[in-house]
Specification:
With 572 residues, this protein is of the alpha/beta class. It is built from 26 helices and 18 strands. The strands form six sheets. A five-stranded parallel sheet has the order 9-10-13-8-14. The chain has a four-stranded antiparallel sheet with strand order 4-5-7-6. The chain is flat and about 95 Å long. Mean pLDDT is 80; it is low at 193-217 and 491-499. The chain binds zinc ion.
Length: 572
Amino acid sequence: MGRLSFSLNDGRIWLDDQRMLLIHAKSLGALRHEMIDAFGLDAARGLLTRMGYRAGVIDAQMARKVRSTTSSKNMFVVGPQMHCLEGVGHSEVVRLDFDVERGTHYGEFVWTHPIEDEEHIRHFLIGADPACWMQTGYASGFSTEFMGRPVLYREVECLSMGHPACRIVGKVVEDWGDEAADDLRFTMPGMFAVADAQRASNRIEVLLSPDESAIAAGHPVGVSPSFNTAMQMLRRVAPTQATVLFLGESGVGKEVFARTLHRLSHRGDKPFIALNCATIPEQLVESELFGAERGAFTGATQSRLGRFERADGGTLFLDEVGTLSISAQSKLLRVLQEGEIERLGDSQTRQVDVRVVAATNVDLRAEVRKGNFREDLFFRLNVFPILIAPLRDRHEDIPLLMTHFLARFNQRHARRIKGFTQRAVDAMLSYDWPGNIRELENVIERGVILAANEGAIDKQDLFTSGERFSEQRYALDNQGKIVRADEATLARNAPPVVEDDRMFARIDKLLHGAAENAEPVSIEEFETVLLKRAVEKTRGNLAAAARLLGITRPQMVYRLKSRGIMHDSDQN
Ligand SMILES: [Zn+2]
């Protein structure tokens, strides 16, 4: 079952690792109504079906990742459960037979209280067509992603058609005859257009598993708005000759973006040459860039091509361009202006046709003001800047990157790790990633190596070197109250407080009896009982518990931890 959590201070809701949105059923109904009026029934149906389809795909990815250790049947049932948790209605299995390896699938479910029918009937009364579009799309998306091949669900009975309940049936696309053509058109328009079922099924697999194809090609991976903005800009500028400047912290993947830019450009079949200006000793930068004639400097025993000449016809990527010396900057500027280079120790100029793509993690404008970077070069490079956001600002990309690197390192290290535990997912999501994607990549590689083979990666396999976590997670406690995640865990994990009557008896003797009859009472022990009682009385509300004892919340946490009543892991 998915886990719903509310992050109150920044207004976010999570279902496991996916950001969710709570909207009014009636506003969805109104949107539906307007869409039908504006675009017609078919177009509206297609749009909503595919919106549901997308949600199903995401939930299937989540189900696979989180429940990787259970049987595939149990894993599949997570779909309908999540859907129920998302508020769209309750479903009951009538029949479910599938075999992921053989690629067979038959599913039949009955829905009660589907949200879409309620809204559809409110606006359109009973009609001849089924109305649970998003839900049916969801079932198709979930099953297709889960099975790794196209599965189509159709709503064969519907409340909106006057039936007592809604009934959906799902089969592999090839197993449906012509009767499914309409539903296929709404659900998978791309597939509908492709006659050959086998070809279609390969195609849809490619479309649905961008992760695997991305591994081979080294594509950037992400779904967040800032990622999409960067990709959109990249696609737009790729076919031009414009100089592109990637901005962003270390480790955000600027080189991956640069490679993609190159691949999408007309120069895609020509060389892509990268140079990290910061890693080359200053006295060698110029010969690296422009080449050197024999004898140009000590050690130059033969003429060699610079990166510009090697990149001729293609793209030269200059990472950390802000570290170039002023003299190298001047020469770079000249190449950008004239399109020609001069090897070190050579007076001849050579024409080169190179698109320069640069990247920097420093504020070049500030470097210009300080006199460390030539202003004219800055303007030359800054024609088309693309900002790659740090990972902490694109939370939504983390799950996708986790799957991506898991597949990569499974392959590289010949491991068969199935996924991540809930604790691991939580930890990944509440960590700030100062080293960005590079750090995440390293952490997952470590996890793949440390975790038991065929098992799931747990938190301790990932974080072993004292990483600090933010403490801003919220969750629902057992009574459905929103509390800080650490408190929810504490209330759930803390063993019921066993009253230490004997200790109170000893205190009583100490206070009221004669000294010779008194048994020793340790202050430590007394404090432990007080702490436990306060937490119990306030049902895990640490701030309230602290108030009862006249201390601050951090003091309370410190004491609970030092007494072993609370653990570090409870706080993450
Ligand atoms: Zn229905």
